[in-house]
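It is worth pausing here to work through a concrete case rather than discussing structure prediction in the abstract. The textbook approach is simple: state the sequence, then state the predicted structure, then interpret. We follow exactly that order.
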Amino acid sequence: MAVGRFQYNTAIAATMELVNALYLAREKLGATEPERRVFSSVMATVLTLLSPVAPHICAELWERLGHKGDVGAEPWPVWDEAALARDTVTIALQVNGKLRGTLQAPADADKAALEAAALADPAAQRPLAGLTVRTVVVVPGKRVNIVAS
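Step two, the predicted structure:
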């Protein structure tokens, strides 16, 4: 029977990335009550995630955030796929395979809409000057490549 390894260094590194992102976000956030509640909620999640690795400091920080009870008894955070849904995506704009810029497009944009947006973009029009568009290859959500000669 194979037993999985605990990789504490990976857990700590991922948590540190999250904490660093929180510091950057906090600099951008204002001091309104809703923003403070969001930050406090995220910090509570970080402490919940980190508590199996560093229980003593997490318990102390949990108490300082004003929570009652044991942080180790908190339910584990639940994955919410809908929270990752984006309204817009960044699409690479290529002309003859060379990156010429990017487009912001609705996440649900179809091929025709992406093609029209790419052809109208000034970043594509400059290298296309005097050329004939032969085909437009659209990979929804990723890139548009205009092939011209």
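Step three, interpretation. The domain at 88-148 is CATH 3.10.20.590 (Ubiquitin-like (UB roll)). The mean pLDDT is 87.
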